[in-house]
């Protein structure tokens, strides 16, 4: 069974457009129709931009038209400040490209997620570290013009804590504050363990909170809240079904060194292998999520990187050399 079909059967959703694109290209051996990929390499990170351009691309990728920029930086785990500083500045550059706003634009930062659950606390932690300025503009707007943008922020919590759809809360704030852009930060589900805490995705299409872990909430996008939305996401969990599938793939590769065993394995019915996976994952089919024990430190580091990149991209007056002074 193809990996894309297996994930669909187990209701596994890949939040990273890069991973969905990799699977489709791997299965067909050709480029995905209506989808363009561009790559850039830096000293400590690689940046891949997936652009879904046509309705056919939307159908294949199961994602809206738009740009999905993924920064892969495994060295985030090393906790080296110089490396993190470069990653922050590259991320800030990509944010600036996607935002496309003037110096007088107002921006609302939204930290999605549950601050009581560590793997889901990225959004609130980014908000806690970000520089907000909207209240200052009422006091001395002339002094701030050209140096800082008017930025407000909120961490609205999740439906289980508030009883209110997050999209409804944001729409109400947007109607009152009237920002030119909403930037939503959220934790994502990855398709591989290597990408937990090391890959950051930017998307100009908005976001559907909880889709990666099976909690489908109302989309936070321009259609639902009445304002352009830029999403920032970081994988913090992996579905156990993904790990099971990857384990079988690695096993198959190892068996290739033994032709006899490989022939037996290849002769197994794909449905037989699927049934084994479902038995192992029962009773949490498609809902068992895995996160590393050091996720708290990864969240702290990446929240600092994202908050720093937001500060640099939103506020022209912040010097790239000392942007950390403006982190909360």
Number of domains: 1
DSSP summary, beta strand count = 9
Classification by helices and strands: alpha/beta
**Strand coverage percent:** 15-25%
> SSE order in H/E notation?
HHEEHEHEHHHEHHEEHEHHHEH
Mean pLDDT: 86
Shape: elongated
InterPro entries: Pept_HybD-like_dom_sf, Peptidase_A25
GO molecular function: metalloendopeptidase activity
Keywords: Hydrolase, Protease, Zymogen
Catalytic activity: Endopeptidase action with P4 Glu or Asp, P1 preferably Glu > Asp, P1' hydrophobic and P2' Ala
Write up what this structure looks like.
This protein has a single domain (3-243, 284-319), classed as HybD-like (Rossmann fold, 3-Layer(aba) Sandwich). The radius of gyration is 21 Å and the shape is elongated. Strands 1, 2, 3, 4, 5, 6, 7, 8 and 9 form a nine-stranded mixed beta sheet that branches. It is an alpha/beta fold and 328 residues long. The chain contains 14 helices and nine strands. The chain has helices at residues 3-9, 17-28, 55-61, 81-99, 122-129, 134-137, 141-144, 159-162, 166-177, 222-225, 240-255, 259-266, 270-281, 295-314, and strands spanning 35-41, 46-52, 66-72, 106-111, 150-154, 181-190, 199-203, 229-239, 289-290. It starts with a helix and ends in a 14-residue tail after the last helix. The mean pLDDT is 86.
């Amino acid at each position: 069974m193809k990996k894309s079909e297996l994930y669909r059967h187990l209701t596994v959703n890949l939040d990273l457009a890069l991973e969905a694109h990799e699977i489709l290209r791997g299965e067909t051996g050709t480029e995905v129709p209506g989808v363009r990929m561009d790559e850039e390499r830096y000293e400590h990170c690689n940046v891949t931009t997936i652009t879904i351009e046509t309705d056919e691309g939307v159908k294949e990728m199961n994602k809206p038209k738009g740009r999905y920029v993924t920064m892969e930086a495994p060295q985030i785990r090393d906790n080296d400040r110089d490396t993190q500083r470069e990653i922050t500045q590259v991320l800030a550059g990509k944010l600036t490209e996607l935002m496309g706003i003037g110096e007088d634009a107002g921006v609302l930062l939204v930290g999605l997620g549950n601050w009581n659950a560590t793997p889901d606390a990225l959004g609130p932690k980014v908000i806690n570290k970000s520089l907000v300025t909207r209240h200052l503009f009422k006091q001395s707007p002339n002094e701030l013009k050209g140096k800082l943008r008017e930025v407000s922020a909120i961490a609205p919590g999740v439906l289980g804590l508030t009883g209110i759809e997050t999209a409804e809360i944001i729409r109400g704030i947007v109607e009152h504050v009237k920002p030119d852009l909403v930037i939503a930060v959220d934790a994502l589900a990855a398709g591989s363990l290597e990408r937990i805490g090391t890959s950051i995705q930017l998307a100009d299409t908005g976001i559907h909170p909880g889709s990666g872990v099976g909690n489908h909430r109302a989309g936070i996008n321009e259609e639902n809240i009445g304002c352009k939305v830029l999403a920032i996401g970081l994988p913090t969990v992996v579905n156990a079904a993904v790990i099971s599938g990857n384990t079988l793939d690695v096993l198959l590769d190892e068996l290739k060194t033994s032709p006899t065993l490989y022939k037996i394995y290849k002769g197994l019915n794909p449905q037989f292998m699927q049934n084994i996976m479902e038995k192992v994952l029962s009773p949490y089919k498609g809902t068992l999520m895995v996160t590393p024990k050091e996720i708290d430190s990864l969240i702290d580091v990446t929240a600092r990187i994202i908050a720093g990149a937001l500060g640099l991209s939103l506020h022209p007056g912040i010097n790239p050399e000392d942007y950390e002074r403006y982190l909360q």
